[in-house]
Structures are given as structure tokens and as C-alpha cells.
Amino acid sequence: QLRLQESGPGLVKPSETLSLTCSVSGGPISSANYCWGWIRQTPGKGLEWIGSSHYSGTTYYYPSLKSRVTISVDTSKSQFSLRLRSVTGADTAVYYCARHVYSGHYLFHFDSWGPGTLVSVSS
Amino acid sequence: DIVMTQSPDSLAVSLGERATIKCKSSLSVLYDNKNYLAWYQQKPGQPPKLLIYWASTRESGVPDRFSGSGSGTDFTLTISSLQAEDVAVYYCQQCYSAPPTFGQGTRLEIK
Q: pLDDT tens digits for B28-49?
């Protein structure tokens, strides 16, 4: 059974970079049929897709976050990561990693999720 | 972005009764006879769990009391006989066009 687990700091200072890692076990990260994505959740904005990356290096980002986001896959460690630069309080959220069903450059639904990690942006 | 609007925001249903949650998309999510619409269940302190995709295909292991229907812009998630463990927030998500977007959620409680 596929398992995803987020890890990283729970507190980030404003203007700094939020960095999270998702460890994948129980299944291959190098699969043509999936991307590996990040979604965040806040009480105000609900569930918001941040972006997804295929193991081949192809990436897809939410347009309004694209200038600040990098998602990458490390197949040797079976991990993928999120970097969100220049954070503000609006980036405070629960961050989830998830497997994103994918085919022919189309992104579909999320069929497996990590438990989530709360990241607060505060000085 | 395609806007997903769910109704109602919250719903209370008696045990054993039917629960119906609606989801409306701002654009049709139907293409080539497939509706690019998924439903998720989120229990407190847990991540969302995929219930249904392609609007009506139940994910493996999901009880058959959960069903999805609809096409184009209007969709429904139905729980045929509510169980206590179904108390959760339910979300729809479109994957017709990037970026994938979610509804605001519907909170389901026991009456």
C-alpha cells in the first residue's frame, strides 16, 4: 500500500523559504502514470493545489504561485520536495503531499495523500 | 480557473437516511464522454480521501453506499444510507483544465 509522509519545519519566518519533503514508500515514484503534487489547506481558502511534478522533470504549477514555487522529484531517495520562496502569513497552511493521476500531460485526481503538516509563517 | 461551488455548505441527516451533496462547475467538465470530476471525504485531523473519480467511478475499497452522478456542470454525491462513520467534510474537484480546483466543502453531520 502506498504511503506518503511529509517532513520539514513547522515554523518559517516571513520572507524566507518554506521547504518540505515527501517520502514515498510502498510503490514506485518513477511511474509514467503519476505526478507527485502538493496541496495546501487553510480555513479561508480551502484546498488549493500548489503544483505537481513528474519523475521525468516535467512540472506543473498553480499560476499565481508559479514565480515562488519549485517542486522536484528525487528518484534515488523516493522523495519529492516543495520549495516556496518569499513566504508571508498568507502561506500559513496545512501542506499535503499527494499522488496525482496523470496521462499525456493531463493532471487528474489525487488518489493517495500524506497526513499533512502544519506550516506557520511568523517571526 | 474553473470555480467549483458546492451546496449546501452543511447538512444534517439521520442515520440510515440518504444524504445528497451538490457540486456545480463554472464551465462544463465533460469531454469525450468523460466527466473530469472527483469527490473526496475528509474526516477531522485526516487528509482528504478519494471516493469517486470520473464523476461516477468508485475508488477501490469505497463502500457502495457512496455514488456519484451528473454530467457537464452539475454533479451529485449520494450516500444512500448514512452511517456514523460518514461524518466528514466532502469536496468535489475538477480536473478538466489546469489548475485543478476544489469546491469549498460540505460538512455532513448526524441529525
A: 999 999 999 999 999 999 999 9
